[in-house]
Amino acid sequence: MKLNNLLKTAAFAAATALSLPQAAAAWTPEEPIVLRIGFGAGGETDTMGRVLAATIERQTGWDVVVENRPGGGGVAMLSALVNEAPDGLVLGMAVNIPPLMALSQRPDSVPFTLDSFDYIGTVTVAETALIAGGDAMFSSIGELVEFARREGSAKIAWDAPDAKAILQKIGQQEGVSFRMVKAESGAEMNKLLLGGQVDAAFGTGAHLPFIEEGQMKTIASLSDKRLSSAPDVPTLIESGHDFFIAPYFYITAPGSLPTDAKTALADAMDKAVADEAVQTVVQNAVSAPAVNLGPEGTRQMMQDSLGPIGALFAQ
User: Fold this and answer.
1) What value does the CA radius of gyration of the chain take, rounded to a whole number of Å?
2) pTM of the model
3) How far is CA 26 from the centre of its chain?
4) I want to staple 148 with a disulfide (CB 3.0 to 4.6 A). Which of 121, 176, 233, 291 is the partner?
């Protein structure tokens, strides 16, 4: 995503946030709200979704039930969510890049468009790391490439198609083989890496305790800047590979929500994201602050990201 687009999105979100109602809206759910998380239990998306749901419950008195619906980096969850009634009782938590990749690469195969949803807000935008075991024979993307060249291949665990695509592109550029191993969550990638089933994996926060314990190490930043958790580790761009990703974690609902329901849900989410408990868990989960772009800011972010992501993965 271009930096100027991100800045425009942030400015747009700030303006939108000022327009949010300051008092709770009149709509209240008559049944428990189901928050479907498009990834498996135990990862950073699940962790942030559950604390967000608990905080909304505490602040509003509503019941919010969390369900895990992994598959396709959240695309499977969104494909089902689009068919739910737009009554505010079923929401989804996803990461922006997998559905944007699906929409840019195979729009006829997914049952939704960006306009199929109403957007409630964002939770954060994560920093993404390429990680390896603490005793791995490589400590940089360049050394990983040479490891794969020497060994014939390197096994890389992934749970989101954008990260997978980037490593495959690097493998093509360098003429080496990366064997990509599918995982359902950051927690599963950690298990694969710690168990020695893979040589490297991706981390957006769930890996950080293992970094602190020396069981893992960061070998590259996949963000457009160096990671706050590993400021001495170069980005892929600095290492000669012109790729980066900016994964936003966001909450969405089936399109055509009643205005009062959408306003109430957006207001509840805005208050929850600002809560200290959510701020702390998000910071710990992805090493980045909680950020809510609001309904229109989130929609704008999705629209602004579609073209650049499509162009990136069309290279």
Assistant:
1) 19
2) 0.71
3) 31
4) 176
